[in-house]
Protein 1
Amino acid sequence: MIEPGTRRREIDEVASELFHANGYAATSVRDIARALDIQGASLYAHVASKEDVLWSIVDHAATAFEHAADAATTEADAADPVDGLAALVEAHVEVITADPERSSVFVTEWRHLSPDRRAAIARRRDAYEARFRETIADGVAVGAFRATDPALAATFVLTALNGIATWYRPDGRLSADRIADHYVDLALRSLSEDHR
Amino acid sequence: MIEPGTRRREIDEVASELFHANGYAATSVRDIARALDIQGASLYAHVASKEDVLWSIVDHAATAFEHAADAATTEADAADPVDGLAALVEAHVEVITADPERSSVFVTEWRHLSPDRRAAIARRRDAYEARFRETIADGVAVGAFRATDPALAATFVLTALNGIATWYRPDGRLSADRIADHYVDLALRSLSEDHR
């Protein structure tokens, strides 16, 4: 017998794949049940609605990004914004490549959440983006970065990172580690003092 | 009386807004007709299917990016890859900010096209991305850029640029021109020779 927690995780995994491949709106509860080889009615024993499944996926993804950023910030040299930003970028890439489907759903499908949940995620996304923004602003303040608009620079870097969720393949040309290394380098250089 | 071409453009504009706001899969032909204040049957006098509308939007967006890149390449100094990349980035940002809804549909909804049309767009997207990739590789060859992986660097820059379609507001904090200036600067610096 499968324990309830395991089934709940399976639902999120299968739903992430379907939402990623076809979009939330085009996926029905019946599609999710069929992919799990169970009846739609059985699925409702585990989840109240399709939106509940989306919420679970998005909430878990947000938590994964937050925890990874917490750990990265703890490990990085607090006095060095360059080291801090490198750690944040690396952590972000690791969360995405560890579960690209879930990350893709987090990035593109969260707008389909109910208004209250969407507002809650918007606040968490903004707080998360603020870590990047403030680290960049700290780097500008100490002369390590040049960025006339730290908020826009944070958006530039984060959207480039989030793009990985749309194209990354575990069996692709580049390993997750290589992508992380390259993206840390590109992100740090995009803020560097010298131009050409 | 509205000439047919005008009505056809109105359909694309209204459909771009709806596909952008709610996604292609969640939008029906009836939704498009309602937004235009016409009957669904009348809409079918202009378009054969919802997918036809998506194709028209995506095809026009692809053409806009291609023409802008052609013009940028013609105007830029052909012997200077830095100038060339700056022109490509600026042109890309201009196309997005001129019509963020259409650009967003191009970036995120093209996967809902029928297989033949999707393949055709995939080829055009790849040829377009190749302009960025080759300009970066040219810059590396002449020592103007440092990029160990020009293909990945092109993806980094293009996904950051495409992100603009998801957050840009014409009445927002930054004008389209300011965003273009900042993004040209961030993109060029991400490839610059010097680090810190």
Protein 2
Amino acid sequence: MKEKLTLIKVGGKIVEEEDSLRQLLEDFAALPGAKILVHGGGRSATRMAARLGIEAQMINGRRVTDREMLDIVTMVYGGLVNKNIVARLQAQGVNALGLTGADMDIIRSHKRPVKDVDYGFVGDVDRVNGERLAGLIHKGVVPVMAPLTHDGQGRLLNTNADTIAGETAKALAAFFDVTLMYCFEKKGVLRDAEDDNSLIPHINEEEFRRYVADGTIQGGMIPKLENSFDAIHAGVGKVIITQASAIDGVSGTLIEK
Amino acid sequence: MKEKLTLIKVGGKIVEEEDSLRQLLEDFAALPGAKILVHGGGRSATRMAARLGIEAQMINGRRVTDREMLDIVTMVYGGLVNKNIVARLQAQGVNALGLTGADMDIIRSHKRPVKDVDYGFVGDVDRVNGERLAGLIHKGVVPVMAPLTHDGQGRLLNTNADTIAGETAKALAAFFDVTLMYCFEKKGVLRDAEDDNSLIPHINEEEFRRYVADGTIQGGMIPKLENSFDAIHAGVGKVIITQASAIDGVSGTLIEK
């Protein structure tokens, strides 16, 4: 039987507010066994851009990453957010190691081809080196992954944190019994985004398609669920969408085949 | 006989100018055997601070690191400078891994006590975990170290890159036959700072004291040489002070016991 591994993805909002960050780091430190934290940081990047007089450009909810914005996300995701999380986890006895996809060539990607929209220096993931990550984890290291990858030609690329979490979970499924948890502000997938009591406790692909067709599920939840089904099909043991305050794995929405 | 390891420390000026950085990365990639790169980044941090309307405060040539400046050096050293070097070394086939002292708890420090001057969030190194670093290096990993450490209480600390290089070389002397190279703009230790032909090819501690007494050696070169003698006494095989363009190890000033 494979060793269990929990991969927690937390959105920017959680890591950017001191109260929710403190709670998350405590809960994450208390999680038993092998684990990985993948974090966002978009709001901090936007704030830093504003302070530098650069306007964050968004198309279809996605950031356009020009050369200046690439420097900003490299600083904010790879430096400010990542290294502070690492230092604080170390203080809780977690042997954290901050990583971008460039470090140890963990995640290789390519610049997204320009079709209708030029998103700039944004990476679409080609492969995650699960073996190297697993080697670190077997030594007791806890990877803390920033949403940055590289193209192997010396260029860092801004990469969606949900995608990094999903692709990493898939690459590690060969080595571990992986539970992937997408954490955000809501209790899970809701029937009514305004009503926290409308949680959908489990969802399979057929139900997902029906919910999308009738408009119950929309927006950013759609790619999150697509990533989730993709992960389940690729051998990830369990995918849960839940609140950051519930990483115990017993609440939220469980994704089923 | 121990495996050879070369530890190169390069100042901010070298990594902040495209031409010298490109040359350095090529030369570093070509170095055979186990290796580590330790980098600065002070000028970039000062520039970023200026863009954010924060004035860099220096006392005795050392940066005062208040809370805002700590965020800036964390972004610039740990993110922008470090991760770009890592991505570019990966493009040259070097399995680089960017590290601060917080990552894997590699370098623990304490906040410098306030005596006459309060330098703020500046770290004095307590210990380097040579065993963990050696473990990574034996796996073919090439650490790229940013001048940041942590206090084990969740706080990152701005730390002198020369000190990080010296302490790391000392900690690795138990595992490797270490050559430590301090690289800067000059050919090495000069008799006359204005004359590149006045290189002192080797120097021992007695000569060093004489040169300091008669004013030949002064300023930032004094702590650099003190670090060097300290390293030699602690088992580091060879210490050289040289130009970044001469990391072949055959030129510059050789430090002797």
